[in-house]
Amino acid sequence: MALVACWECDSQISDSSPSCPQCGAPGKDSQLTQVNAVNDEVAQEIKRSAEAKLIRQGLLKELGAKFASETHEKFFSVTQKGKKCHLSVKWQPYIIDDHNKDKEVTTQVTQRKGTTRNGNSYVKDVDVKHTTTHYDYIDAYDINGELCKFRLVDLDLDKLKTGQVVSLGWLMNSDSQTQGDDIIETGSVYGQSWDGNRQPSLIVQHQDTERTPEYAFQALKASAFHSAIHTHSIGTWHLLWVGGLVYLGFDLYNRKIDFGWPVLAATAGVALLIKGIRYFNSAKPLKQFDEWYRKSLNDEAKRGQEAFAVVASRFK
Fold first, then answer.
1. From the CB of residue 11, how many other CB atoms can be counted at a distance below 10 Å?
2. Quick check: is 47 in a domain?
3. How far apart are alpha carbons 38 and 42 in whole angstroms?
4. Were 198 and a residue from 12, 121, 189, 213 both cysteine, which residue would form a disulfide, CB within 3.0 to 4.6 Å?
C-alpha cells in the first residue's frame, strides 16, 4: 500500500482507497469501474439499436415486395348474373419515416330570408355549419429503400411511429383475372387519389420487438367500396318496361283518359317494390364482402407475426 495524491484536492490518500476522505472524489479504480460500466451500457444500446434495424430490414424482405390476399369473387349485380368482380388486396411493406397530421375546417353559412308586408326582404334565420377534413401525410421507405409519400383523407389515423414496419394495402378488382397475383398486376385500383396516384386504403402495423403479439390495423371502412363493387338498381330490362308504362300513363293522362294516373301510380309502385327487394337482397353479398375485407386485414397481421418470428430467430 502506498500514498498517492488525490486527483481532485491533492491530499495524501491510500492508493487502495475507493474515495478521498477529504473531498469525496472517487479513486482511480472506482473511476475505471464506472467508465467500464458506462461503456458496457453504451455498447449494449448500440447492439440493441443495430439489431432492431436489422430486424426491421429483415422483416421487409421476409414479407416480400408485394403480396396478394385471398381472392373474393362476387357478381356486380344483386341478380347474381352478368359481370363478376374478382377482388384482392395488394400488400406492400414499408418502414415509416414520418407521419404528420393536419386538418382543415370549412365554414358554410346559409341564410333564410323573409319578406315584410311592405315587400322588403330581411334575414329570417342563419345556419352555420362547420366541416372538418382530416389529412394524414405519411412518408415511408419501401423494400428498395426508396422514399414514398402518401396522403389519406378523413381516416384520422392513430399516430404511426418512426421506424414502424407496416403493410399498406390497395383494394384491386379484375373482371377477367381470377388469381390474386394476376389481379394485383393488371386489375383496377379502388381508393382515394392524390398527386395522380391511388392511395392505400388499409394499414397493418407489424411488431418489430419481442412482446405479446397484437393485431393493429387501420383502414378505410369496407362500406366505402360498396358502390364500386355492387349495384342493386332495377336493371336494364325492368327499366325498359317501367319506362314504357310511364310513357303510356302520361300519354293517357294527356288524352284526358281516366285511368292514366292509376297506370302511373301502379308503375311507380312496382318499380319501388323491385328496388326494395333488390336492396334487401343486397345485404348478404355485401356482408360477405365486409367479412372478407376484415379477414384480409387479419391474415396480413398473422403473416407479419410469422415473418417476425422467422427474422427474430436469427438473433437468438
1. 14
2. no
3. 6
4. 189
